[in-house]
TrEMBL record, chain A:
Cross-referenced Gene3D superfamilies: P-loop containing nucleotide triphosphate hydrolases
GO MF annotations, alphabetized: ATP binding; ATP hydrolysis activity
PANTHER family: ABC TRANSPORTER ATP-BINDING PROTEIN
Main localization (coarse): membrane
Protein name: ABC transporter ATP-binding protein
Origin species: Glutamicibacter uratoxydans
GO biological process: response to antibiotic
From TrEMBL, chain B:
InterPro entries: ABC2_TM (IPR013525)
GO terms assigned for molecular function: ABC-type transporter activity
Subcellular location: Membrane
Bilayer topology term: Multi-pass membrane protein
Chief site of localization: membrane
Keywords recorded for this protein, A-Z: Membrane, Transmembrane, Transmembrane helix
Name of protein: ABC-2 type transporter transmembrane domain-containing protein
GO cellular component, one term: membrane
Length: 305, 251
């Protein structure tokens, strides 16, 4: 039966997870509310220990929330996983070193009852050339590609990637995201946890920023950058007097960094200040930059703690 | 889905060889060495001869050790995140354990069969033919209780070297369980409480059953090895369950 409401890919309500050992109690996730619509590409961004992996584990039904609720495509996570509608590339381990690449893909395909997809998936993830190689002899990037292949086997509607490029070099990372782009078509929902800002910036339409077990910011990746107002202008100034004068241009001006006569100013109205720097203070080599996601990240996580 | 998994498991074992050599060749080699000392192995014993007795002992040891080694990989592979990988498929975790058990049972069966074949070729004999098959079946069924032991040790120490430890301890259990050489007096009394005693005593029972009590090599009353086997099966099962729970809580 068709429902009028579009089902959300992932819905997290009041999600808490506390790990209790005999001595300590760690609150890894403290009240996460999140709704991700089908077809979105979302980055779960945060430093190590932000609670990203714990959240991912609960979305996959690998661990149970202490309180709160997880729904995947309107289903209980375990059901969504066993029906092959959601799959994941997990952060650590997950491969046996003495199996060959082909054996690994084959057995997992058998477990999904999708043996017919083995060849196509191996081809798409570029594993056909190393099919006979043992997993233990594969590089970090290749192993990550194997895990990616395993996640594609059930042809999932929702694909979750936990630090998918960890341990890859720059080239491997670029190749990985290129393959990823091809898979992101056809309404597939993709959620990836990362601590590389660049990846969120380049690939995600929406970024959820996590810190200390909470969501500290959530919005279109572009919007998130604008959360930090102002621009940075760097310029080389002719003398000390010019530097002093420039600082008095308006109250929003401050010096962020200085290297000799090269000054990095923070300012609110970058256009007017740039004009003044060039015409009134004799500055040259001027550069204006918008705040990076990194700046947003630092500021927002600082605010949260 | 189990069929593919089991096929790949066998492919891995054949490729690595290490486990298989231990499982198949070591018991056979031990029987060949100790079972063919001409001075006494031709002597009659119970319903057969000493060779048959030694053949049963070595086959039982081999079956148990190979079960431990293979069942233990359930633990080590789960620890390496393979369990999580499987948890993301349709296959229930129980099917993973089941396929490992099938592999373990097959290797144990092959290991014991090899020793039996060697025995049959070199003069192990019994007066009643059924003793061959019954002893063989007791060896196979009894070996399975050591699967829980292997899983438990693997889970507690969570490394591949733990499996070496588990197998190493089996040698100790074997010596102290009256498997390799007949124990006497106080040692034998203590041995009745060790894990391999009931297992191997039961496997030998069809051979020794007619020796009257009080004579050399006379078997214990049947309830003693049965009680030993059941008790250790329970202990190992509980140990495995507790170890799995603890390991899960740590994750």
């Amino acid at each position: 039966m068709e429902t009028l409401n579009r089902t959300e890919a992932v819905t997290l309500t009041g999600l808490h997870k506390t790990f209790t050992t005999s001595r300590t109690k760690v609150e890894a996730v403290r009240g996460v509310e999140l709704g991700i619509e089908t077809g979105q590409i979302v980055a779960l961004l945060g430093p190590n220990g932000a609670g990203k992996t714990t959240t991912v584990d609960m979305i996959l039904g690998l661990s149970q929330p202490t309180s709160g609720k997880v729904e995947v495509l309107g289903l209980d996570p375990r059901k969504a996983v066993s029906s092959g509608r959601v799959s994941a590339v997990m952060q650590t381990g997950g491969l046996l070193r003495d199996m060959t690449v082909l054996e690994t893909v084959r057995v997992i395909a058998a477990m999904h009852q999708r043996p017919e997809r083995v060849e196509a998936v191996m081809e798409r993830t570029g594993l056909s050339g190393i099919a006979k190689r043992r997993v233990g002899k594969c590089s970090g990037g290749e192993q990550q590609r194997i895990k990616f292949a395993l996640a594609l086997l059930p042809d999932p509607d929702v694909l979750i990637l936990d630090e998918p490029t960890a341990g890859m070099d720059v080239m491997a990372r670029r190749e990985f995201w290129a393959t990823m782009h091809e898979e992101a078509t056809g309404g597939r929902t993709i959620i990836f946890a990362t601590h590389y800002l660049e990846e969120a910036q380049n690939f995600a339409e929406r970024t959820v920023l996590m810190s200390g077990g909470r969501v500290v910011a959530d919005g279109a990746t572009e919007e998130l950058r604008k959360l930090i107002s102002g621009r940075t202008i760097s310029a080389t100034l002719p003398n000390e007097q010019a530097v002093v004068q420039a600082q008095r241009f308006d109250p929003s001006i401050s010096i962020a960094e200085r290297n000799g006569q090269r000054i990095w100013f923070k300012c609110a109205d970058s256009d007017a200040f740039a004009r003044a720097l060039l015409s009134d203070y004799g500055a040259w080599d001027l550069e204006i930059s918008a705040p990076s996601l990194e700046d947003a990240f630092i500021q927002l996580t600082k605010d949260a703690s | 889905m189990i069929a593919t998994y089991i096929r790949v498991e066998f492919a891995r074992h054949i490729r690595d060889g290490y486990n298989l050599i231990f499982a198949l060749l070591l018991p056979a080699a031990m029987y060949f060495l100790f079972g063919n000392i001409p001075s006494y192995t031709e002597f009659d014993l119970g319903s057969g001869n000493v060779k048959f007795y030694l053949m049963v002992s070595m086959a039982a040891y081999g079956a148990a050790v190979s079960t431990v080694a293979i069942a233990g990989t359930v633990a080590t592979e789960t620890m390496q995140g393979w369990g999580r990988q499987i948890a993301l498929t349709k296959m229930p975790p129980a099917a993973f354990v089941t396929s490992k058990m099938i592999v373990a049972a097959t290797v144990a069966a092959a290991s014991a069969a090899l020793v039996f074949a060697l025995g049959s070729a070199t003069g192990a004999r019994v007066t009643e033919g059924w003793i061959w098959s019954v002893s063989y079946l007791i060896i196979l069924a009894g070996a399975m209780i050591f699967a829980c032991y292997g899983i438990g040790v693997g889970m507690v120490f969570k490394s591949e070297s733990a499996l070496g430890l588990a197998s190493g301890l089996m040698v100790f259990f074997a010596f102290f369980g009256n498997v390799f050489m007949p124990l006497e007096g106080g040692m034998l009394d203590a041995a009745r409480f060790t894990p391999m005693y009931g297992y191997v005593a039961l496997a030998r029972y069809p051979l020794l059953k007619d020796i009257p009590a009080g004579y050399d090599m006379a078997p214990d009353a049947l309830w003693i090895p049965v009680a030993n086997l059941v008790a250790w099966a329970l202990i190992f099962a509980v140990f495995a369950v507790v170890a799995i729970r603890k390991a899960k809580a740590r994750q």
